[in-house]
Amino acid sequence: MKRTALGLALLLPVTTAHAGDLVVEVSGLRNNQGSLALCVTADPAGFPGCNKAATQRVIPAAQARRPITFPNLPAGTYAVAVIHDENNNGKLDTNFVGIPKEGIAVSNNAVPKFSAPKFRDAGFVLGKQRVTQRVRVVYW
After folding, report:
1. Which positions carry the signal peptide feature in this UniProt record (predicted)?
2. In the predicted structure, residue 118 carries a pLDDT above the cut 50
3. 18-136 in CATH: which number?
4. What is the pTM of this model?
5. What is the torsion angle, in degrees rounded to the nearest 10, for the CA atoms of residue 47, residue 48, residue 52 and residue 56?
6. Kind and range of the H or E element at 18?
7. By the 8 A CB rule, do 82 and 135 touch?
8. pLDDT tens digits, residue range 121-133?
9. Taking the domains of the chain in order of start, what are their residue ranges?
10. What is the pLDDT of residue 1?
11. What letter would DSSP give residue 35?
12. Which of 6, 15, 39, 112 shows a CA-CA span of 20 to 30 A to 80?
């Protein structure tokens, strides 16, 4: 039993040595209605959706004034997508041509005007140090 506990204790620093904290600061909300869905992904194929998110969180929009922390993420290249789900229906509402009716934001503020955001534009490197992404929600 003591050997098992000692072995696990020795492994703990190794598993967290390459982990870093991501802090997301959101600005530009037009109101406090609904919720914010935040998706953090390391998979370009899963961006900007949440299907292959490394981690995700849904918070009330009123709490978006405070930084949102994603602790102990493995080192790597990530991108963040944020949706202001004003009507709390769990999806991004769009018009008949696919333009969002609700606010969106992505890391590096890489929101293009005429297409979906690209991982290569929104990607950033997370290592052992804390990284802060300040994103501004845009509406069309």
Report:
1. 1-19
2. yes
3. 2.60.40
4. 0.85
5. 130
6. none
7. yes
8. 999 999 999 999 9
9. 18-136
10. 52
11. E
12. 15
